[in-house]
């Protein structure tokens, strides 16, 4: 892909923010993509989150609801039944949403359950960005973070709590255990992220679905 700086989208934006646009096809299909380059150390720029908890809003509706921010990023999966977010969301240091910690196996693995670590992008109060793979649930105020993607934990437990199984989780990932993830703002969008321009997926396509 070729990313070009789009001067038409720069109007009204501060110096610490640039928008780039891709117009080339992706794998033979039409593709339109944008990315924003933002100076995290510019204290005039604030990073915040909102959730779909109890409601279903489009990015345009979030834009109006949040008093016309410079940029709205559509992230996390959500339930069509409850409208709740299905990935980690952290706002002002508080966990607002949690990703599912269990995926039921199928076929030969129908008696087993997978417990994946879900990826997220976070920004600390010191304005440092971090990509981590999290185990988060409502029993702990802070998620536990790992700096590398790992294979999922597989067992016969339909539910798994970090409070009850922290020893098993850290043993499975003992080479990369990174205690509590203390960030001010964070958002997860699924099991896949890129770090240093490298695409990373901790679980297979089947489990991603």
Kindly describe this structure.
The chain is mainly beta and 209 residues long. It folds into two domains: 43 residues, no CATH class; 163 residues, no CATH class. The protein is built from three helices and 15 strands. Strands 5-4-13-8-9-10-12 form a seven-stranded antiparallel β-sheet, with no helix packed on it. The chain has a three-stranded antiparallel β-sheet with strand order 1-2-3, with no helix packed on it. A three-stranded antiparallel β-sheet has the order 6-7-11, with no helix packed on it. A hairpin with an 8-residue loop joins strand 9 and strand 10. The longest helix has 11 residues. It is globular. It starts with a strand and ends with a helix.
Task: Report a brief summary of the structure.
The chain is mainly beta. It has three helices and 15 strands. The chain folds into two domains: 43 residues, no CATH class; 163 residues, no CATH class.
């Amino acid at each position: 892909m070729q990313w070009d700086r789009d001067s038409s989208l720069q109007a009204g934006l501060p110096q610490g923010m640039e928008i780039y646009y891709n117009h080339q096809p992706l794998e033979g299909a039409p593709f339109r993509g944008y990315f924003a380059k933002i100076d995290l150390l510019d204290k005039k720029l604030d990073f915040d989150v909102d959730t779909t908890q109890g409601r279903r809003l489009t990015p345009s509706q979030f834009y109006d609801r949040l008093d016309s921010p410079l940029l709205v990023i559509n992230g996390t999966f959500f339930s069509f039944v409850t409208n709740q977010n299905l990935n980690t969301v952290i706002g002002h240091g508080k966990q607002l949403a949690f990703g599912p910690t269990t995926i039921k196996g199928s076929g030969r693995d129908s008696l087993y359950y997978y417990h994946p670590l879900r990826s997220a992008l976070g920004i600390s109060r010191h304005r440092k960005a971090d990509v981590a793979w999290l185990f988060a649930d409502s029993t702990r105020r802070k998620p536990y973070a790992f700096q590398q993607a790992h294979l999922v934990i597989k067992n016969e437990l339909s539910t798994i709590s970090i409070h009850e199984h922290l020893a098993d989780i850290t043993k499975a990932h003992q080479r990369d255990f990174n205690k509590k993830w203390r960030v001010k703002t964070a958002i997860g969008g699924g099991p896949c992220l890129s770090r240093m321009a490298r695409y990373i997926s901790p679980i297979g396509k089947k489990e991603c679905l």
